[in-house]
Amino acid sequence: MKAYASLLYTPALLLASVARPGKVKADMLVLDLEDSTHPARKAEARALLAQADLTGAGLPALGLRVNTIATPDGLKDLQALIEMDATIGGVPLDVVFIPKISGPGDVAVYRSLLSHTSRPPQICSFIETVDSVENAADIAAVSDGLCFGQADLTAELYAENAFYLDHARARLCAAAAKYRVPAIDTNSFELHDLDVVAAQCRAARDAGFTGKAAIHPRQVEVIAETFTVGPEEIADYRSVVEDYHSTPYGFAVEEGRVLAPPFVLRAQRMLQLHAPEAAAAAAAAAAVAHATATATATAE
User: Fold this and answer.
1) How confident is the model at residue 158 (pLDDT cuts 50, 70, 90)?
2) Beta strands 6-11 and 28-32: pairing type?
3) Taking Cα atoms as reference points, which of 244, 255, 251 lies closest to residue 293?
4) How much is the pLDDT for 266?
5) How far apart are CA 124 and CA 64, in angstroms?
6) 117: left (phi over 0), alpha (psi -120 to 50) or beta
7) To the nearest whole percent, how much of the chain has pLDDT over 70?
């Protein structure tokens, strides 16, 4: 799954508001059949998705959050997805977001069901139950991405335990990094003070998240500013990899930077996550540089 910086969640019933060109500024639009759709209107929302036309919307990427298959609505969501061949309004789904799972077996059920479509979408699993926090690594191993659901996780607790929530974030981010999948932070419920949203974004990135959900368009720009990995950052990661392998030393200082295996490994991982093509190019260049440096050292 690509590391999307900003993901804008929109209730499926409000599909018309984002169906026009240029309306979605986020890296992905996520249509929501779960929490933002009232239980009494979920059937209506599914019918709307089946009748939609998104071919002219110019969406950068499309996701869908379904209800848990532990409920009748979740089963109906998956049945509808299969009948639509994982396509909404003429646009293939890139990612299905699955909520309230407990372990890797839940992910396997969704993947099995979605395999009945001609182009199965990727799966991003929500870590928002106590069981999923404890099983985060096993869930990451069978998922294409992880998403943090703070509100639902807090609802399982007697209180909004900040220590436990930090523990949950750490487990999620470590699991995502271990299995090289994106880690998407929970949305902010702050809609007016964007400085607060910006601070939340910085804290999330420092914790290891690679992107963040938005529930209102005005949040998207702030999120993008924090999480978008631009060409300069990609070039710097690539330079670290190539410069290290151009020297015959295991530890070197080049242009004021310390080049050592841990820093090179992180640069490689960030390239693989954010720019796979650049990662491949850096690996090829590094192989040539390493061979040249080895030959030079041997000759000396």
Assistant:
1) very high
2) parallel
3) 244
4) 85
5) 10
6) beta
7) 91
Q: Which two tokens stand for residue 147?
A: 């998403």
Buried b / exposed e along 155-190 (16+ C-beta atoms within 10 A): eeeeeeeeebbeebbebbbebbbebebbbbbbbbeb
In angstroms, rounded to a whole number, what is the distance separating the alpha carbons of residues 95 and 141?
Answer: 17
- 10 Å Cβ neighbour count for 108? 12
What's the whole-model pTM score? 0.89
- pLDDT average, residue stretch 135-163: 97
How far apart, in Å, do the first and last CA atoms of the chain sit?
Answer: 46
Rounded mean pLDDT, 266-276? 83
CA–CA distance, 22 with 221 (Å, rounded to integer): 14
DSSP track, the chain: ----SEEEEEEGGGGGGG-STT---SSEEEEESSTTS-GGGHHHHHHHHHH---TTS--S-EEEEPPPTTSHHHHHHHHHHHHTTTEETTEE-SEEEE-S--SHHHHHHHHHHHTTSSSPPEEEEEE-SHHHHHTHHHHHHT-SEEEE-HHHHHHTSSS--HHHHHHHHHHHHHHHHHTT--EEEPPP---S-HHHHHHHHHHHHHHT--EEEESSHHHHHHHHHHH---HHHHHHHHHHHHHHHTSS-SSEEETTEEE-HHHHHHHHHHHHHH-HHHHHHHHHHHHHHHHHHHHHHHH-
Can you say whether the dihedral through the CA atoms of 43, 49, 50, 51 is positive or negative? positive
Q: For 69-94, how does the pLDDT look when each residue is reduced to its tens digit (9 = 90+)?
A: 999 999 999 999 999 999 999 999 99
What is the DSSP annotation of 219-267? HHHHHHHHH---HHHHHHHHHHHHHHHTSS-SSEEETTEEE-HHHHHHH
